[in-house]
Amino acid sequence: MGDFYFGSDLFSEFDRLQRQVSSLLGGFPSSIRSGTFGAFPAVNIGSTDDSVEIVAFAPGMNAAELDISIDKGLLTISGERKPAQTEQEELRSYAQERFAGTFRRVIELPETADPNKVQARYSNGCLTISVGKREASKPRAITIQ
Amino acid sequence: MNNQTQLAERDQDTLARRESEQASRRMTIAPAVDVFEDSQCVTLWADLPGVSKDKLEVKVHDSNLYIEAEAVIPTPQGFRLQHAEVREPRFARTFALSADFDTSKIDANLQDGVLKLTIPRREEARPRRIEVNAG
Fold first, then answer.
1. Would you tell me which residues 66-125 of chain B have a C-beta closer than 8 angstroms to some C-beta of chain A?
2. ipTM of predicted complex
3. Over the stretch B111-127, which tens digit does the pLDDT of each residue have?
4. What is the CATH number of domain B24-73+85-123?
5. What is the 3-state secondary structure (H, E, C) of chain A?
């Protein structure tokens, strides 16, 4: 019965469970604009000293069909994803898990983001958006007198 | 009436676990799929964002179809992740294939992070109309 509890991996299993639960309940208050959990496209956000980096996981799109805009500190990604196959006679569907339809995701940019310095790139189904930070907000070394 | 039979249900972020050779368990994401069948073949579409051709492995073993992939997203230097909805860059999903599929003729095509697999049915397994003789 030694392996009754997932072998030696019990603690990593608990860890995983805890992460999943906290991601559902939200350890931090999430933005009022964040929408429902699991919205399309999924978005990861991070930053560097010089920029805010956003990755939207939107496979199967044309770069031309993606609409990106910035208005008053809100970055909006919108577009429409076509269904893989249109309805046909004698076509049976066993699974339709992939998102199809119009979508819109809004991301609140920090105050320090500069809407004039935006670069967007679509490759392998990922939309990468890089928003530069204002000069004044970049980290500086402070000299001690 | 709609013609959808047996819609497979999938949790929004089903987490599957893959046993790797080193016995270390790695977390993977089960990619969302669409599966359609017509008289000739089954077509499977899988969302694999961030996966390039060299990081994708599709194999058939013991009449199971394995899809394994790893997403690679270039990040600039000094990058710090602050909000993540996709936490694992690995995808894995397995399907059982019945004997009426011709696994030697599977066609795979990856474009813009979407994998399209065409799995033809064997010639003898395709539907035929059977004439009824009036006697």
1. 71, 73-87, 111-114, 116
2. 0.72
3. 999 999 999 988 877 77
4. 2.60.40.790
5. CCCCCCHHHHHHHHHHHHHHHHHHHCCCCCCCCCCCCCCCCEEEEEECCCEEEEEEECCCCCHHHCEEEEECCEEEEEEEECCCCCCCCCCEEEEECCCCEEEEEEEECCCCEEEEEEEEEEECCEEEEEEEECHHHCCCCCCCC
